[in-house]
Amino acid sequence: MPTLLSLKNVCCSYDEQPVVQDFGFSMQPGEICSLLGPSGCGKTTVLRAIAGFESISAGEIALCGEPLSTPSSVKPPEQRQIGMVFQDYALFPHLTVRQNIGFGIIKHPQRQQRITRLLEMTNMAAFEHRYPHELSGGQQQRVALARAMATEPKLLLLDEPFSNLDTDLRRRLSFEVRQILKDQGVSAILVTHDQEEAFAFADQIGVMQQGKLLQWNTPYHIYHEPATQFVASFIGQGHFLPGQVQGKHLSTELGLINNPTPNRWPEGSPIEVLLRPDDIIIDTASTIRADIINKTFMGAITQYTLRLKTGSIIESVLSSHHDYSHSEEIGIRIDAQHVVVFPAPSH
Question: Which residues form the ABC transporter domain (predicted)?
Fold first, then answer.
C-alpha cells in the first residue's frame, strides 16, 4: 500500500530555538493517527507544519510522494488537499450551518448535494439554517468537521477539537467523529494531550516529549511495550517499584516476578518495574500488606491508592461490589501479564 503522509527528519524552530527535532513518521491511506504529549511538547507545531502554516528548518514533509515542505520550498496550505479542524472551530458567525459547510466549495459542480450529504452524515440536517451562536459546542464541532470534509481532502488534521467540551460529550463525540471518518475512508491526525482520547480515537499513536517523537505504534503496543520510561509513565496509570535481576525472575518488594527478557541485563542489575492498577490484585490471604490511602469510586470499578510498608505507592482497581475503607490494611499480590522493565537510573 502506498504511503499517504511521510515526515522525514523534520525540524522546526522559533527564533532559532528548536521546537521540533529530527521528527519522522509515516501513515497509510485510511489510517487515523494521533500525536499525544504534554502541553508545549511541539505536537501542534507538527500539525501546523503538515498543514503548511509553519515552515521547517530541516527534513521533508510529503503527501502521496509529493513534497509539501522542505527548508527551501513550501507548498501553500490551500494547495495541499489537507483539511483542518481547529480547537475553537473557527466557524463564520454571520453564515448559517449550510453556508459554513459550503464555504470552501463554491465552485463545486454538485455543491448543494454535497452539503446536504454532509449535513446528514453529521446529523446536522435539522439545524442547517441556524447560526453558530444558536448551536451547542458539540453541534459546532460537527459543523466544523463537515466544513473540513467538504473539499474532500486527502488528509484531515484535528487540533484538540474536543478540548472545549465536557467529559461525557467529548467521549461521545470523539466516537462519532471516528465512525464518520472510518465510514468515509478519511485519513486523519488528531492532536491531544488526553491519552484516553488518543487510545479511543487512533489506530496509531505518536508520543512526544520536548519536540521529539519517542514512540510511534498502536495503542496496544504503546501501553504494553512503552519504549521509554517517559512513555510508560505518561501512558496509563502506574508506579515504578525498584528491583533486581535474579536470573529468570525480578526481585521486588512484592515478591518475584517472571523476567520477560532474562538475557537483557546481567545478574544483580538494578531495575525498575512498572506496575499498573490492573497488575495488582487484592488478596485477603496474602502476607504482603498495604494501607489504603485513597479510593476513587468510578461506577463499575473502584480505584485504590495503596502504600506499602516500605512507603512505596501503587494502585489497584477492583469491582465496586467490594468496598474497602480508607486507611484499611489489605493483602495484595502481583498478577502482571505484561511486565514493563527499565534499568534503574544511575545516580
Answer: 5-235
